[in-house]
Amino acid sequence: MASTITDVAYRPALSAPIGMDVVDFAELRARGRRRGIDLSSPQRPDFHHLIHVHPDSAPLPHTVDFTRYVVPAGGWLWVRPGQVHQYGAGPEGPWAVATGDIVIWRPGFVPDDPPDTAGPVVPAGPHARSVDLARRHLVAEYADVGTMPLEAHNKALRMLLTVLLLRLAHAAPPETAGGGTAGDGPFPRFRAAVERDFTRTHRVADYAAALGYSVRTLTRAVHAATGTTAKAYLDARIVLEAKRLLVHTDRTAADVARHLGFADPSDFGAFFRRHDGRTPLEFRAAARGTA
After folding, report:
1. For residues 239 and 233, what is the distance between their CA atoms, to the nearest angstrom?
2. CA proximity to 13, closest of 124, 145, 131, 210
3. 39 within 8 A of 28, measured Cβ to Cβ
4. Phi, psi of 249, rounded to the nearest 5 degrees
5. Which of 41, 127, 186, 212 could staple 221 via S-S, CB 3.0–4.6 A?
6. What angle do CA 77, 80, 82 make, to 5 degrees?
7. SS3 of 115, please?
8. Burial of 78 (0-12, 13-18, 19+ CB in 10 A)
9. Phi, psi angle pair for 89, to nearest 5°
């Protein structure tokens, strides 16, 4: 039987300000044991993870939505809310011996997201020094509870996290950019609407009408940000969720189809085959190694 996805809600430490936490790897492993969470099993957190591997640590393998990354020493990896991710397994594995920090925060704690990159970011040269200075300042302020009123302390943390994210955005090589766009505008609004409504409607025209744009304007904005069409972006989001459910749960293909908003399971099967080249069950068997 496949592992199920563990939905993980934000639960800050008792000493943490509301909305943000800084946890080193050892403490996260201890939290997992206390809460009965197997960190090597698939998890879907509802908050941001910014994973940093210390410069003197062994590399850290980490899987995010079926892609296995290896975060090298000094590297950073962003896991967005809603993504399914897994730490390495085994008592003697890399997750058990790696050292580093994880900054976690609720959506909305800071105005901007981390750099939307296709994998880890490894700052180099002056960028490495600036990013590390921002990280150490954030960690120091996080630990310095009590020297300022909580409201001022929380405000300082928001500012310092924003600085760290800004430094990381400029440390990311251009070739790793994933096309993300922060702030307001057609594409960020479309991206947020897709996350909210992709199980309800699969028509770009519905999103355009709800957001107050023409289909052409929305398509141009999505293409400028991602290099693909609005329909392709929407379809890819639906396929990703289908794959998550097929691999990490034992739902039937018909159940997955209904969850994703397909009135007829055969329509879902044809949609999935068109994008993946396999039926949903063929994909499940191959992904689980039972083909």
Report:
1. 10
2. 145
3. yes
4. -135, 170
5. 186
6. 140
7. coil
8. buried
9. -100, 165
Q: How many CA atoms lie within 13 A of 163 on its CB side?
A: 16
At 188 the pLDDT is 87
CA–CA–CA angle 191, 83, 33 (5° rounding): 150
Q: Report CA Rg, the chain.
A: 20
Mean pLDDT split into 10-residue runs, the chain, 291 residues: 69 72 89 79 89 93 90 93 80 76 92 80 93 96 89 93 93 58 76 94 96 94 92 96 91 96 96 96 87 63
- Indicate the Cα dihedral angle 142, 147, 153, 159, nearest 10°: -70
Structure token digits, residue 169? 């955005």
Q: 21 - beta bridge partners?
A: 104
* Helix/strand/coil percent split, the chain, to 5: 45, 15, 40
Q: Quick check: 288 and 2 in contact, CB under 8 A?
A: yes
Find the helix or strand (DSSP H, E) in which 134 lies. Answer: helix 126-143
SS (H, E, C) 35-100: HCCCCCCCEEECCEEEEEECCCCCCEEEEECCEEEEECCCCEEEECCCCCEEECCCCCCHHHHCCE
> Which residue's entry shows tokens 């992904």?
287
User: What type of residue is 72?
Assistant: P
Q: What are phi and psi of 177, to 5 degrees?
A: -60, 140
Q: Is the pTM of this model over 0.85?
A: no
Both ends of the chain: CA-CA distance in Å?
A: 14
The residue written with tokens 């994933």 in the block is 178
CA–CA gap between residue 152 and residue 158 (Å, rounded): 10
